[in-house]
């Protein structure tokens, strides 16, 4: 069966791995010693903000993973509205799990359209620690509940979700790094 894609730029990150093994020290060493252009490309896959990526890359080497993740958070908190808009614009919708039925696509499309019409940017939500069976319901509930926010409140929430996504993606990169 071919995976189904939803149209539109709703950002639903890949579901987290079931096992939570901490990154190895060699992964951090690889991160710290990677060429600048390579690490910038990698960081831009974690958060689509060149300013955030440059800030993280420029402060290498990090003594430990916690320091790297703290720097990631700090850089994400410091995103200017333009940087936030750029990061939101880079988010895309991944493939939904097999078996998701057509009515779910319709509901998600409608909720996304309403959200984007109200706020002028894609919906982002971090799904870390959720099972694949809970993800779609969580996304739909999140969009519907956040539609009641005022634009400034939603900008703050979207920035927080981007921060959480970046952190999770950074950890995933470190887990996948080769010694």
Automatic annotation (TrEMBL):
Residue ranges under compositional bias (Polar residues)? 16-30
Q: Which GO terms describe its molecular function?
A: 2-oxo-4-hydroxy-4-carboxy-5-ureidoimidazoline decarboxylase activity
**In the Enzyme Commission scheme, what number(s) does this protein have?**
4.1.1.97
- One Pfam entry for this protein is OHCU_decarbox
Which GO terms fall under biological process for this protein?
A: purine nucleobase metabolic process; urate catabolic process
Q: Where is this region: Disordered?
A: 1-30
Per the record's keyword annotation, is Lyase included, yes or no? yes
The record lists the catalysed reaction(s) as:
5-hydroxy-2-oxo-4-ureido-2,5-dihydro-1H-imidazole-5-carboxylate + H(+) = (S)-allantoin + CO2
What UniProt keywords are attached to this protein's entry? Answer: Decarboxylase, Lyase, Purine metabolism
Q: In which pathway does it act?
A: Purine metabolism; urate degradation; (S)-allantoin from urate: step 3/3
- This chain's protein is named 2-oxo-4-hydroxy-4-carboxy-5-ureidoimidazoline decarboxylase
Q: Which organism is it from?
A: Streptomyces sp. R28
